[in-house]
Amino acid sequence: MLVRLLYASRARQPLAPAAIDDILATSVEYNPRHGITGVLCHGNGVFLQALEGDREEVNALYQAISRDARHHELVLLQFEEIVQRDFPGWSMVRVNAAKVNPATMLKYSTHGELDPYRTSGAASLALLKELIAGASLVARNPERGRS
Ligand code: FAD
Questions:
Q1: pTM for the structure as a whole
Q2: Given ligand 1 and candidates 68, 87, 91, which is best to mutate, with the most ligand atoms within 8 Å of its CB?
Q3: Domain residues for 127?
C-alpha cells in the first residue's frame, strides 16, 4: 500500500552543503532499494521532506530519520494513503529554498521563506510539487537524486 509522509525538522547545526550532500548520498543509496521516492527541501535552518512508498518502508525510514542527531523538533505534517506518487522520478531530490524564486515561496507562506512550522501540510506539499514541476528546482547535480 502506497503512502506519503510529510514532516518538518530543524537542523542542529548551520546547514553546510557537505552535510546535505551526506544526507543525499545516503538517501540515493537507500531509497531506491526500498521503493522510496521523495523530496528534501532545506533552508532557513529547516528541513521539509516528503517520503513516498510502501507503508512499512516509509514508517521504518521515518523512524531512522527521527533518530538522526543532525536535526530535531520533528513535526509530522501529513501521513496519508495515496493512489499514486507525486514524486515518482526522484529517489530523493534536494531543493535549496534560498535559491527558489521569492514569489514562489511567498505563494505558499506568510513571509516568503521556508517555514513549514507555520504553514499547513497541504500548502507545504503544494510548494514541493511546484518546486519539482517548475524551473525553481535547484540541485547541484540534478541527476544524482534521480532514481
Ligand atoms: P548510521 O549510518 O548507523 O548512523 C547513526 C547516526 O549517526 C545517524 O542517525 C546520525 O545521527 C549520525 N550520522 C550518520 N551519518 C552522519 C554524518 N555523515 N554526519 C553526522 N552524523 C551522521 N536516509 C535515507 O536513507 N533516506 C532519506 O530519505 C533520508 N532523509 C534524511 C533527511 C534528513 C533531514 C536527515 C537529517 C537525514 C536523512 N537520512 C535519510 C539519513 C538517516 O537519518 C540515517 O542517517 C540513515 O537512515 C542511516 O541510519 P542508521 O541508523 O543506519 O545510521
A1: 0.90
A2: 68
A3: 2-133
